[in-house]
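Hi R.,

Here's the chain you asked about this morning:
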Amino acid sequence: MRVVVYSTRAYDEEFLARANADGRHELVFLEARLDATTAGAAAGAQAVCGFVNDRLDGAVLARLRDLGVGLVVLRCAGFNHVDLEAAARLGIAVGRVPAYSPHAIAEHTAALVLSLNRKIHRAYARVRDGNFALEGLLGFDLYGRTVGVVGTGAIGACFCRIMRGFGCQVLATDPQPSPACEALGVRYVPLAELLGASDIVSLHCPLTPQTHHLIGREALAAMKAGAMLVNTSRGAVLDTRAVIEALKRGHLGSLALDVYEEEADLFFRDLSSEVIRDDVFARLLTFPNVLVTAHQAFFTSEALAAIAATTIANLDAFAERGAPLHPVSVERLA
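And here is the predicted structure, written out as tokens:
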């Protein structure tokens, strides 16, 4: 099956080629992001493979259908960027990678917490400049602190285990509490109670209409003064402008992000010689108590291998029986 792989970097090509070592699928790798201007490159393909910032709205899907594409496979778990109703109407199947390495993202989240708390990013820059002073680098013990986890799926549950290992008290909120988390001593509470009691709040929920800007002005005002907020889920779970206001007021103590709601024009690209035109993002970078990584929480060799293997398995299943191994559709979500 001919597959056009969009938003490709060298590591994507390496791991996908390895998973497709026998060449049973013809993989065509493109650096370009999938949108209305690049969809034409899928001519002659039976499937396209996209990533988190590819555009798969109704217009793009209709164009793909006209070109003969019958399958969209996503190299990610999230599918909020896909118009599933349009896909169903057009007869295009959609497959995803429901899980790859929850440890990768949970461990990166813990790294962000530790780095932001102990100012590792600032200390690293200071020492390289010959500044060995400790003023401004004061942190706090994680032991005994309260950590609030919003969403306890595979990643959130893994993060709960890590935080319990540090000796933290862990609160969680999720429509479907995890018995495994409860067995760890995690206590489930309403979101408002979690926000008011937590020294650190970590977001691990999917982006849905219900969670869009879940953490906005009201939620931020409900947070404990001086608390740390960490987001490694999806950018639009946070209202970035409201977060900036909370940082300016001093109510929000610190912020760590691996995702950003307008990241599509920034992340996974080298813009070091260009002017950042996103004024909201540029404002975030001016705060000394903000730490941003560029959507790299998933980026481990184990995760990339699992993503590639599942992507190829989705292609195999579609070629054999007309449906991906891990489908996602409006009917399935209903």
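One quick note: The chain is about 35% helix and 15% strand.

Cheers,
M.
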